[in-house]
Design a protein that fits this description.
Helices cover 26% and strands 20% of the residues. It is α/β, with parallel strands linked by helices. Residues 71-92, 231-253 have a biased composition (Basic and acidic residues).
Length: 265
């Protein structure tokens, strides 16, 4: 199957990135091996908007729901390999490829990645975001990926999450971001917006504005933004309140995970 974006890892950074790319109408697949670190927290108290904290499993579930509502697809599967499958253009006078052409003579239509999972599924994508914790073995088959070993493995990126490979990004903890949920969520969003910029998408806003906010000032509604009237605003607020009442009416039913080293054999 073919996607625009495949995200490896279904933790805070990966799901945050998926929400942005899917909302921008890129076909997005999240491959989640499970066991996100955030679910081990006894009580999550470092996320803005929850003054008394929030159950970490509930928060994780809400991130999944938000990404899916934005249009992302999520599968529980472990990725074993990511490979480049580019096709190159004949730019030379005798059909030879111009070795000086950037990114191995590929453009957005040529660049592809093949992603292999333990379920023997193979999917292809134009972009890949690596958002696992410190797992990097699945990137071994790609030339140009810079790895950093500081007792744990990280992927070398620029300040926006770009790796040395065109179309491949790293987000969150894997990109050396601090071990904080708020930071990783923000970085996942930033990496997604960077990807959208690199895809030459129009400037992207994740913003719902009141009716007339732009148009009454003679401005076009920016890409990714929408204006809604008061009845629609009230409808969405009511839906939001209903959702939150349902999700928080009872304690989260999931068991409290712990570190693998503390589990009984």
């Amino acid at each position: 199957m073919e996607y625009d974006v495949v995200i490896v890892g279904g933790g805070v950074a990966g799901l945050s990135a998926a929400t942005f790319t899917a909302r921008a109408e890129l076909e997005t697949l999240v491959l989640d091996a499970g066991g996100s670190l955030i679910r081990r927290n006894a009580h999550l108290e470092n996320v803005p908007g929850f003054p008394s904290g929030v159950n970490s499993r509930q928060f994780s579930d809400l991130l999944v729901e938000q990404a899916e509502n934005a249009g992302a697809e999520r599968r529980e599967s472990r990725v074993t390999a990511v490979e480049r499958t580019d096709t190159t253009r004949d730019d030379g006078p005798d059909g030879e490829n111009d070795a000086n052409n950037a990114n191995n003579a590929t453009d957005a239509n040529d660049r592809r990645f093949r992603v292999q999972t333990t379920d023997d599924d193979r999917v292809t994508a134009e972009y890949v975001i690596a958002a696992t914790k410190n797992e990097t073995a699945y990137l071994d088959g790609i030339d140009g990926v810079g790895l950093i070993d500081r007792g744990k493995a990280f992927v070398d990126t620029d300040e926006r999450g770009r790796t040395g490979v065109d179309g491949l990004y790293a987000a969150g903890r894997l990109a050396e971001k601090p071990h904080q949920a708020a930071v990783c969520a923000g970085h996942g969003a930033e990496v997604a917006v960077t990807l959208l910029e690199d895809d030459d998408r129009p400037f992207y806003h994740d913003w719902v504005a009141p009716d007339g906010y732009f148009t009454d000032r003679g401005r076009e509604v920016p890409p990714g933004c929408e204006e809604i009237d008061d009845p629609e605003r009230r409808r969405r607020e009511a839906d939001s309140l209903k959702t939150m009442r349902e999700r928080f009416s009872e304690p989260h039913p999931g068991d409290q995970p712990t570190h693998p080293s503390l589990r009984e054999e």
